[in-house]
Amino acid sequence: MIPRLSALSFRTKINCGIVLIVGLIAIPLAYLTWRAAAESLQTETRKRGLVLSENLAMRVSDAMLSMDLLRMKNMVDELKKVDDISYAFILDRQGSVLVHTFSGGFPVELAEVNAPDGPKPHIRLLDTGRELIDDFAAPVTIVGTPFGTARIGLSRTKAEAAADRLALMIVFYSAAAMVAALAPSTLFARRVTERINRLKRHAEEVVKGNLDHRAGPVTAKACSDTLSCDNTRCPAHGDRASRCWLTASPDQRGEGPESCRDCPVYREQKGDEIQDLAETFDVMAVSLKSHLDELRRAERVLSRQERLLRTILDATPDLVCLVDENARYLAVNRAFANFLGLTSEEIVGASDRDVFPEDEGQAMHEENSRVLAAGRPSDREVRLRRGGSPVWFHVVRVPVVDASGRVIGLLRTARDVTQLKQFQEQLIQSQKMESLGKLAGGVAHEINTPLGVILGYSQLLQEDVPGGSQIQADLQTIEKQAKVCRKIVADLLGFSRQAESAKIEMCFNNSLMEAITLVRHALSLEKVVIATDLDERMPIIYGDPEKLKQVWINLLSNASDALEGRGGTLLVRSRLFAHEQKVTAWFADDGPGISPDNLGRVFDPFFTTKPVGQGTGLGLSVSFGIIKDHGGSIRVETPAPEGFFDALDDPGHDRPGTVFVIDLPLDHEETIGGGHPANATEA
Amino acid sequence: MRRRDVLLAGLCLPFLAACGRDEDAVRVDLSRREEPVLRQLPRAVTYAYLPQYAHTVSYERHRLLLDYIGRATGIPLRQVFPDTFEEHVRMVERGEIDISFSNPFAYIRMAASGARAFARIIEPSGKPDFKSQIICRRDNKELKTLADCRGKRWMAVDPSSAGGYIYALGEFFDNGIRRSDFAEITFAPGPGGKQEKVVLAVFAGACDIGSVRDGTLEILRGRIDLGQIRVLAESKSYPGWVYCARAGFSPEIIEKIARAMFALRYDRPDDAAILSAAGMRGIIPAVDADYESVRRLAEKLGLDALPGGEE
């Protein structure tokens, strides 16, 4: 299969081209030379034949006059010795053959086929069947009188054969020239293609990224040696593979190396076009390398800045995102993706309407559109619903503009301010409670005195009335209700910290048992069983026994109320955590539990779920205040931790239950036992 | 047309232009042969001119004269061309030449065989006799007198040539110069044209002196620069060329021919053309006794001892 011309190697193309050129020149030249030689030979043959025949005619005239046949015979025989003369003969005036060169008789047809053209010779081409003969008939004229004819036959076939031999020789020499041309052309092609291949290898190395490869020739001396140049900062200094006019003087490239024409380095190292190309490649590689180095440095800086920025964005708890002019996400930080429960890749390209619930997404999209359209930042708080509870975000939208000032997107940051909002609500509530407490304390203080008078007078009056009378009964009712009032007033005073506490060292377990003993009977009437699980190490605390007892009774009372009269079990557990210097008590019931909505408000003053008249909502609030006063904490868990009631003898509780956990500090060193973690499930 | 087609056509054009043969060949069968036989020439009176010049010159000079004699006498004449003086003499002796036109010395030899003179010519000089000229190159400073020819190379026309050799030899003899005094004596080579050859030899420097009959230099005028030739000396005059008839030739025919010859007049243009071509002014009667002076010269030079008159 013949390969395509374009697929041939350059060396083969050069060789083929030179052979083709030599062939195209030599072959037509050989042919034309052959033709010219043939024609020239033919012309010369004709001239020669004419000369020979006329010469014969002239020379034979004397012999003809004297009828010297021998001389005439010798003359024609002399001619016959010439290779291409086929025959020669002499005719007399009457056309009779006097002498001839034929052996075996004279061809009878030959004498008549040609005759002189008057006083001039005549040429006629004869075909003998074996060869072509130019027949020359020259008149033998003496003083204008025709005496006969001299005839000579020159073989044109032999002349043409000579021309053919000449053509063959030309072809042979042309072929030899072609072969001879092939050798230097091969050397030339090899020289050229070697250098081109070196350029190719250089280009391949550049493509592979090796920009240190050099294509130009290495000279014997570096330019710095030639010029005794001590500029070591020059890139061509000491480098025999670099040309200073290309690498060291980039400012001169505007005029090209021509500006270095008179420099000895240029004169010594200037090469041909291929060397120029190779050196340009080298310069290109050096330039490319320097640019790549700059790009790599810039890339490293950018990459580091990107990582830094990404780290900052991902580290910030704020929800940060960048949207384009169509309000579609371009980038989001990790907090944003976590908030939506999606990956960054899922979010990028989507819009707010795709990733947020319908109402929230629509609102956000509209706000985005307003900011994009107006080009002014916005700042607002947004309330979202997540997990059944509200979540507040402070959302800031800042438009992003390009160099021409056109808005091409916006940066949106959203900070979770839910806790702040709760603190704000709590602060407002605390301030309200403080004012209310001060009001209640003042009122209770003022009521306490007349109430004492009422109680005192009712007791005095009971002494004055007969026993068992209606008046006594009424007075007892007055006394009882007055006591209730005094209790309420005492609670109010306690709530408003009006009551002074008297803290002493006391046994924690005993305090609990005192309270349990007080209420156990009453609660048993409501089918409520109180189970205890107290730490046997008998932890000692520093506190007000009465107030703490009030707390325990309050908690037990609340627990009983939570059972809603259907009975149940109350579990009181205490544990000492010596290493944490605290003691913990759990008051648990197996009731229906507290709803999540109310869970955060149970310690608020006057918060109650009981019907009007059955509770003031101050019990837990007062208990909270007492525990805080003792440096402890109280919290509620509902439902009760799993397995909290497992230690009881009466399992099978199917209600979630509620547990109040109270931690109280130990003010002095305890010598009893070691610490254990406060695990509510611990038996 | 695309450029490639033009290029291709340009390359092919020389091939197309060079193709083809430009003439037709005549078919000839060379196999049918027979040996040619020469025709017998018609009988005629043979006429020969002593070959002092080339045959063609001889033919040219006497062609008109023969035509005239033929017309005047009604006798067919045919010119024959002996190659040498000797052959001429022998052919007369053998009867192959009926009428001979020769120099006096050749005549006395032929007369010995029975040939008889019947006419003689008047030379272009207007005299019925002629002489020999001894020539040399004009720039040859050594040759001033005849005596200076001693030791020189001498080329003569022919040993039998009267004007070209013998008359000059007689002149040298009369001046005391013998043949042995010359460095060499050579004769013009080859047949015919010997007078001219001598002049050319002197002109070319092949010899120092040459001897020719008078009138020869005029024949070469225009062919060589005669200014380069100097006539060193001339011999005494002797009777001019002579017509003789071979022994036994018909006296009547001789008479007719002689009359026709004598009838030529140089003052008639037609006759003058005939006579001028033949290099003569006229033809007058002659007898054998007219050539006694020549016989004496031969005797003086001792030429009789040579066979055929040659030395």
Describe this structure in words.
The complex is a heterodimer of chains A (683) and B (311). Chain A has 683 residues and is of the alpha+beta class. Among the domains of chain A are: 7-172, Beta-Lactamase, CATH 3.30.450; 498-670, 2-Layer Sandwich (Heat Shock Protein 90). Helix content of chain A is 49%, strand content 19%. The longest helix of chain A is centred in the N-terminal third of the chain and has 56 residues, at 10-65. Chain A is rod-shaped and about 220 Å long. Chain B has two domains: 45-127 and 239-293, Periplasmic binding protein-like II (D-Maltodextrin-Binding Protein, domain 2, 3-Layer(aba) Sandwich); 132-236, D-Maltodextrin-Binding Protein, domain 2. Chain B has helices spanning 3-18, 55-73, 85-94, 104-111, 162-174, 194-204, 216-219, 251-262, 269-278, 292-301; strands spanning 26-27, 33-34, 45-49, 77-80, 99-102, 116-122, 129-130, 132-137, 153-156, 184-187, 209-213, 229-234, 238-239, 242-245, 282-285. The termini of chain B are far apart. Chain A binds chain B through residues 24, 28, 31-32, 35, 61-62, 65-66, 68, 94, 96-98, 100, 102, 104-110, 113-114, 124-129, 132-133, 142-143, 145, and chain B through 11, 14-15, 18, 23-36, 38-39, 54-56, 58-60, 63, 79-83, 191-192. Strand 4 of chain A pairs parallel with strand 1 of chain B.
Q: Give, in order, the helices and strands of chain B.
A: HEEEHEHEHEEEEHEHEHEEEHHEH
Query: Most extensive interface: pair and counts?
Result: A-B, 36 and 34 residues
Share of helical residues of chain B: 25-40%
Q: Overall 3D geometry of chain B? A: globular
EC number (chain A): 2.7.13.3
Subcellular location (chain A): Membrane
Main location (chain A): membrane
Organism (chain A): Solidesulfovibrio magneticus (strain ATCC 700980 / DSM 13731 / RS-1)
Quick recap:
The complex is a heterodimer of chains A (683) and B (311). Chain A is an alpha+beta fold and 683 residues long.
Short descriptors:
heterodimer, A: 683 residues, alpha+beta, Beta-Lactamase, Heat Shock Protein 90, 5-stranded antiparallel beta sheet, 17 helices, disordered C terminus, B: 311 residues, alpha/beta, D-Maltodextrin-Binding Protein, domain 2, 2 domains, 6-stranded mixed beta sheet, 20% strand, globular
